[in-house]
């Protein structure tokens, strides 16, 4: 965990040294991506605070519990080492926004996309704008993202049921580095929310939080 903690502490310095973006002295926070198109990017407001608290407890990180909201095209994106994107509907990136997100990811950032149900076709089109020459590919169960501090021998856990389909984890790789992880037919973010929101049983919420922690740990240790 020392490696994970040191990488988190150094992210802003390393990333910002390779791009033109404002420095920050505020505590490190997880980011929530705000996008255009009418989709509810603000879904699951209690998810990231709970995930940050879980990582602090289980991984020894020191995240600020309050997440930051950041727009796709903003230079502030570079202040967040790990950004979460969710919603139920449409996603629209302008050319400038797609370029900014691409530069962020190539510079060391990590994006987790979590389909909260209904955003899949829009996400795929948006990511084609970001990386026209790279595709979302299904990750095998043997991929290290499923075998960090918590072991998921069957891959992405199922948190909420919608269409009776198995959960699938997709990724985009840039220069052999996983820069985007897309959880589909799972609803991880719902599992991170306060227990009272969805009334999920403890074992389901635990699975969701553990998978989220794996994503954060992997992003900093790959």
TrEMBL record:
Residues 30-220 form the DUF4159 domain. InterPro entries: DUF4159. Residues 1-21 form the signal peptide. It holds the Pfam family DUF4159. Keywords: Signal. This is DUF4159 domain-containing protein. It comes from Neolewinella aurantiaca.
């Amino acid at each position: 965990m020392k490696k994970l903690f040191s990488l988190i502490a150094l992210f802003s310095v390393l990333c910002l040294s390779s791009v033109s973006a404002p420095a920050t002295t505020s505590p490190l926070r997880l980011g929530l991506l705000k996008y255009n198109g009418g989709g509810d990017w603000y879904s699951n407001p209690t998810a990231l605070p709970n995930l940050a608290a879980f990582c602090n407890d289980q991984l020894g990180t020191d995240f600020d519990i309050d997440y930051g909201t950041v727009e796709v095209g903003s230079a502030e994106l570079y202040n967040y080492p790990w950004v979460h994107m969710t919603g139920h509907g449409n996603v629209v990136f302008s050319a400038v926004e797609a370029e900014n997100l691409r530069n962020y990811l190539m510079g060391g950032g990590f994006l987790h996309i979590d389909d909260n149900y209904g955003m899949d076709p829009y996400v795929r089109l948006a990511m084609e704008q970001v990386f026209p020459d790279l595709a979302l590919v299904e990750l095998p169960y043997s991929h290290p993202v499923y075998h960090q501090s918590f072991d998921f021998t069957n891959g992405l856990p199922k948190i909420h049921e919608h269409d009776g389909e198995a959960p699938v984890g997709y990724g985009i790789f840039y220069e052999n580095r996983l820069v985007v992880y897309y959880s589909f037919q799972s609803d991880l973010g719902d599992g991170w929310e306060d227990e009272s929101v969805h009334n999920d049983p403890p074992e389901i919420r635990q699975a969701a939080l553990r998978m989220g922690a794996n994503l954060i740990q992997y992003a900093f240790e790959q």
